[in-house]
Each structure stands twice: as C-alpha cells, then as structure tokens.
Amino acid sequence: MNNYAFLTALIVLLALAIACAEPAGDAVQSPVLAVVELATQPPIPTVPPIAVPTPTPTQPPEPTTTPARSPMTSPTPTPSDDATRNRATTDSWVKVEYQGVDHVIPGEEHDRYNSAPATSGWHFGAPVAPARWGIHTIPLPDEVLVHNLEHGYVNVHYNCPDGCDALVAQLSEVVDIATDVGAKVLMSPYPDMATRIALTAWTVIDKFDDFDDVRIIAFIMAHESSPLAPEANVPR
User: Are 41 and 17 in contact (CB under 8 A)?
Assistant: First the structure.
C-alpha cells in the first residue's frame, strides 16, 4: 500500500470513531470529515508553467555614414547651334601692327590708327583715361580705349545704327559675368566700324556680326591681362 492510500484509510477510521461518539441531533459535519472529503478528492492536476521564450538580444544596427559631398561644380554650358557654327578659332583673331604707347592730351593731333577700334598707339593719360571697367552706354574715344587695352583690358563693342536692344542685352550679360569674377572687361558702343560686334585686346582684334557667346568668352579668356599688354599687371 502506498502512502497516499494508507493515509486515506487512517483518516476514514478516525472519522468513524468520532461519529460514533457524538450524540444524536442535527447533523453537523465534522471538521475531520471535511478534511476526509478533501483528502479523498482526486488531486487537482497541476498546469506546468508556460515557458516564456527568452528574447534573443539583437545587435544594434551599425550607424550609417553619409558620404562627404564633393564640391559642387558648375555644369559645362552647351553652346547653341548658331554658336557652334560660328565658333571662332585663333584664325579669326587678327594681329594688328603695334603703334606705340605715346601719351597725348585731349585735342592733340596724332597719326591715324591702323584699326577701328584701335588696339594700340596714342592714348590719354590720367585722369582722363583709362575708363572704368564694365558697361558704358555712350561711345568712348579711341584714346581712352587704348589706355584700357594697355592695362590688359578686353574691350567689347557694338555698332547698331537702327538700335539692337536684344544684342546689347546679350553682350551685357556676358560682360557682367566676366566683371563679376574680376576680369578687366569694358563694353561700349562704337559707331565707326563696319561690323556689328568687335572685340579688342592689345594689338589683337576680332570682328563679326552675329552674337556668339562662346566666341566672346574665348577671346576674353585668351587676352584679358595678356602679357602682350605693356601694363597688364595694373589692377582694374
């Protein structure tokens, strides 16, 4: 007999003995009998504890690094079809014979310039010349313009007897871009020339009729502060 059966039998015998010894009357359940009832009931099955899964530690994600930005660069402009067709080469830059660097005063006579506009030769001294860099809306004397060329300027000229607001606006935009970065560039009307546009540097000229920004910029880049100019190191 196992321990559980033995204990149950013992409790039953004790309960019977006590019941026989009690007087008759209202039936009152003995505490021992209550214990016996509890003891004789089948055991309540135990529920195994629910296993809570142990969370698997996750490794934090590695920080992502943002690659350093490269310096922003300006896109290379694509010239228009007209500019491509009319693009100048060095062959269009005419070398003009040197005419000296003599100073004259306003009203003083001198020999004739060998190009229009002039690219070297007689010119006014300070304070009459040189002219300020940038855009001028009235013609300037050759004697003033030559002094600018002597300092390494590039002069941009236009000739529009009937008016040419669109051309002036286009030329002005190019000149503004050049002067904004510190280039020595001057622009002014020049009525005494055969073409609509002329570019001059010291002893160099380029003349044409149709606006071509690539051609103008190429001339400025090649000849602004040119070592050919006697005083190219003078700041603007």
Answer: no
Which residues neighbour 19 within 8 Å (Cβ) at sequence distance 6 or greater?
A: 30, 33
Residues 32 and 103 in one domain: no
Is 94 found in the same domain as 34?
Answer: no
One digit per residue, the tens of pLDDT, for the chain of length 236 reads 555 555 555 565 555 555 555 444 444 454 444 444 544 555 555 555 555 555 554 554 544 443 333 332 333 344 445 544 445 457 899 999 999 999 999 999 999 999 999 999 999 999 999 999 999 999 999 999 999 999 999 999 999 999 999 999 999 999 999 999 999 999 999 999 999 999 999 999 999 999 999 999 999 999 999 999 999 999 99
Coil, helix or strand for 38? helix
24 contact partners, CB below 8 Å, separation of at least 6: none
Whether residue 13 lies inside any domain: the answer is yes
Do 190 and 101 lie in a common domain?
yes
